[in-house]
Amino acid sequence: MTAALAKAMGGEDHQRIRFPAFQQLCKDITGDGCTSEMVEAAFVWATREQAIEAPVDGAARAAMNVAKNMTISTDKPATDGVKGGGGGGGGGGGGDDSFSDSGKGGNEKGSASAERERALVVAQASASLKRRASGEKSMSGALCRYQFLQTLIKLAVARSIPLETDDVSDAVEKLMSERMARFLPADAKIDPNAFRDDKLYTLEVEGVLRTHLRSLHALFEAFAGAGPAGRADLMSLPEWLSLLWHYDLFDDDFTPKEGTLAFQWSMTRVVDESKARPRLLNISLIDFFEALLRVAWRKRLPTPDMVRKAGKRNAGDYYLQLRSSPPDVYNSYLDAHTRAGLLSGDPVGMPAHVAVETLISVLVTSTRAVESNASGTADLMDEEVRSYMEEFEKKAASR
């Protein structure tokens, strides 16, 4: 199941932006400020080092060579290392990845640098047109984070220089504040550290996680080792979503989107996303603890009061009963939970440490529901989790 999910998602490398998504984003944020050729050229330039784009890479490099050799016209003579060829001097404009010159020269240097950047984009757009006219293959490759930032700078230059400003930083600021900010969804503005400080880093939550540490280890290692990479020390997004699916946690209120956001917000950032790619794409056991708490704080799980009124011994038993009931029964439960949250102003209905304890109860009880897993131990064993995975997939296949 995990391998199939990873394949359906286009592989486990989910931290890249492919051309169709980039093209739509550019259409939204730049309006008529950039042509489709310039958007394509910026993408080609940013992905020029990817081996899978050999034909496009050649076009991009040719475009850059043309741009470097172009004579840049400015109102004043270039000074302090800003030369007509746009490629050398003490201003630091000699590399392919240079976006602005530093050092002396003020606005004269900034104007020349900005003009050189625009010439580069125009030259790349020309090369892009020639490539498409010759019938070369369509765009492939994908942008990682730093490449995405590079393309935004390129597009800001193409959109605003020299019509609106001669300063590259001003052009980027205009693109970010006037265009891109309005398209950011609320989820994109979330600060992950706020949740950590308020909910995760507490003695009560730590106590719950320590109590169930062995069971959490077993869950993490079983699902992390089931994916294409087969690494039990790191869990990928498909493996994480597979865990949520196996334990029947998705519904109309908590969808794979919410599951994905819990994963993304729990990830530890890395400095070098090329050299530390496994850590960029996966979560560790510690990250896994945080992701579980985020799920518990978002999903409408049975509250202690609901469990008591239902006459069940724990939240796991009550949740299994709800999930095995007809859909209208479970949907009624969700509606009642939602209404109670709106009236009280507390959508979760319980403190963070109780919420994660409830989620762990659901995971453990579900695993132990398999007949062969009638273990006398308090903690889950690795074999029990794997047995549950196999049993669940058999039932899913027979539906």
Task: Give a topology summary.
Layout: H1 2-8, E1 17-18, H2 19-30, H3 36-46, H4 54-68, H5 106-133, E2 142-143, H6 145-160, H7 168-180, H8 192-200, H9 203-211, H10 213-224, H11 237-246, H12 256-266, H13 277-281, H14 285-298, H15 304-310, H16 315-324, H17 327-344, H18 352-368, H19 382-398
Antiparallel strand pairs: 1-2
Helix pairs in contact: 1-11, 2-3, 3-5, 3-6, 4-5, 5-6, 6-7, 9-18, 10-19, 11-12, 12-14, 14-18, 16-18
List keywords for this structure.
19 helices, 399 residues, mainly alpha, two-stranded antiparallel ribbon
Taking the sheet with the most strands, its summary is:
2 strands, antiparallel
Distance between the termini: 15 Å
Fraction of residues in helices?
Answer: 55-70%
Number of helices: 19
User: Which whole number gives the mean pLDDT?
Assistant: 78
Strand content: under 5%
One letter per element, helices H and strands E, the order comes to HEHHHHEHHHHHHHHHHHHHH
Strand order of the largest sheet: 1-2
* Number of beta-strand segments: 2
Shape: elongated
How would you describe this protein?
- This protein has 19 helices and two strands.
- It has helices spanning 2-8, 19-30, 36-46, 54-68, 106-133, 145-160, 168-180, 192-200, 203-211, 213-224, 237-246, 256-266, 277-281, 285-298, 304-310, 315-324, 327-344, 352-368, 382-398, and strands spanning 17-18, 142-143.
- Strands 1-2 form a two-stranded antiparallel sheet.
- The radius of gyration is 27 Å and the shape is elongated.
